[in-house]
């Protein structure tokens, strides 16, 4: 059963407004403030300026990730993701990259795992095209982590139609449904 | 090549000690601290010397410092600033994230461990009681010669009977599983996993990510040292036994519940390999006693519940990035033995343990913050480590079984943190340097 802070379950849509800081009450994880689990679960929105002329390089990485996941579907399993959204957009002539992820774990907890995964998938090479990204990221995990935290833009509203449900729970439910239909078919 | 003659023995060897004593020290001024260190450092075994003379030796000594202690010894600010952030902050500042709240809060810690006056620990492991007493007296004499070095507190350790193998007060056999370090000269046993790069535990060597990074400076501090998290954990034996009695009607049922909490029978036999019945012979065979994994052998936790202590502390093939999360464990039990049929006497007893790793934040703190205290680890929803998690009576423990799992609600706290600290464990050359040698013109 989906565990939610206020006792709600998946059947009751919920919204949460979040203060400017990104959290209701300051609570530190290992690397800094923790952001609350909302009806749309955990996640982050990282927005950073793309280095001049590197927009195409960033865009091409979409294909790289597509290929990586086609080849190894569970490559990102560690992150307990629901969705990723990568967006490029312009403000006053400069290009910005937005990396939005929705997942079931608190990013602070699995930061090093994510960094290791980024390394192995080459996601960091996308970051290398961003302004201010530490050049020594390969060895300097703390600097990588600081970059992510510095560029994180917390939400001020999050909504879930089926709040607090984890990806694993959804997959379990769908698997059960599949088996159940199969069983009904067998009984025809 | 590992410089075994410069690495403190505690990192790589386990002394055959039956007793021990920890002394927590404070330095009033740098010269007092250095005088003390200069005298004691000659008694600190390296891994090489401990191995060479283990049969003849009767005592083993380890020395380590808090960040405040390094400053008290006169280490300059430039050098102090090169130590990792979490070590500089110290365990007290990190306590909320570690889960040290409620009864485990640093305000309630004993022995002056939460104080910024805590500067150093000297660890004595001794073969027997008379040897401990002899060393204790000798150290008292040394301290008498070092005015300005004071003892904040001490803790006596001793093995808990019966003595056929190492176990804690709850009766669980310990020292069954440990990481295997490349080039350490140890033999790996089946199930220990692939050899790990020494830099995971010893500063100055390549780690699983490549060349070491962010080492303390100057160079003499960057090699052959490590970091050490100290945890004094009181074990509430009466509460533990009451719990087993409450949830198990027969002796067999009680043993099974105890095993489910840990992931091993109290004999040490792993539940993955002995799911139904205890198997002491399996426990006694190092070739088999650690040779298991979870993903293929017990994916749903029918043998080892997902929330049990050993499945949290080393999820083996079901955890990500595992080679970067391992820890070396050392320590001993303290407090009086409480016979099986005796009522709880209210005395404090427990484990006084060291978790040794190259990165406190990535290894020890991750274990505390995620594996032990994340209520939703492994999607468990409402659980923490049943042995050492922060328990306030509102959490549960789920035991998967067919057709319907068993859920124990209102899990009590079987342990309480009574103190802790972060220490830097220098290599032997670094100890000499800190004591004043090699400083040239230092006053
Ligand atoms: C009262 C406190 C504790 C008790 C009674 C306890 C007991 C045990 C026992 C009986 C084992 C199984 C033997 C073995 O695998 O070597 C074990 C394993 C382990 N424990 Fe603890 N422990 C305690 C605290 C801790 C702490 C504070 C940590 C680290 C933060 C820790 C980390 C581990 C690890 C890493 C393993 C090995 C798991 C494996 O490799 O399968 N334990 N513990």
Main attributes of the structure:
heterodimer, A: 188 residues, three-stranded antiparallel sheet, two-stranded antiparallel ribbon, 5 helices, 5 strands, globular, B: 443 residues, four-stranded antiparallel sheet, 10 strands, binds protoporphyrin IX containing FE
Give the terminus-to-terminus CA distance of chain B.
36 Å
Name the pair of protein chains with the most residues at their interface, and give those residue counts. Answer: A-B, 23 and 24 residues
Largest sheet data of chain A: 3 strands, antiparallel
- What does the average pLDDT of chain B come to? 96
Mean pLDDT of chain A: 89
Q: Which distinct ligands sit in these coordinates?
A: protoporphyrin IX containing FE
- Can you count the beta strands of chain A? 5
**Helix and strand composition category of chain A:** alpha+beta
Task: Provide the spatial order of strands within the biggest beta sheet of chain A.
Answer: 2-4-3
- Give the uncertain stretches of chain B in residue-range form: none
Overall radius of gyration of chain B: 22 Å
Oligomer: heterodimer
Summed up:
The complex is a heterodimer of chains A (188) and B (443). With 188 residues, chain A is an alpha+beta fold.
Care to describe what's here?
The complex is a heterodimer of chains A (188) and B (443). Chain A has 5 helices and 5 strands; from the N terminus they run ββαββαααβα. Chain A is of the alpha+beta class. Chain A has one domain. In chain A, the strands form 2 sheets. A 3-stranded antiparallel β-sheet of chain A has the order 2-4-3, covered by helices on one side. Chain A has a two-stranded antiparallel ribbon with strand order 1-5. In chain A, a hairpin with a 2-residue loop joins strand 3 (81-91) and strand 4 (94-103). With 443 residues, chain B is α+β, with helices and mostly antiparallel strands. Chain B is built from 14 helices and 10 strands. Chain B starts with 8 loop residues before the first helix and ends in a 9-residue tail after the last helix. Chain A binds chain B through residues 1, 3, 27-31, 78, 106, 109-110, 112-113, 116-117, 138-142, 166, 168-169, and chain B through 85-86, 96-97, 209-211, 213-214, 320-321, 324, 361-362, 365-366, 369-370, 374-376, 379, 381-382. The site of protoporphyrin IX containing FE has 27 residues of chain B, from strand 5, helix 12, strand 7 and helix 13.
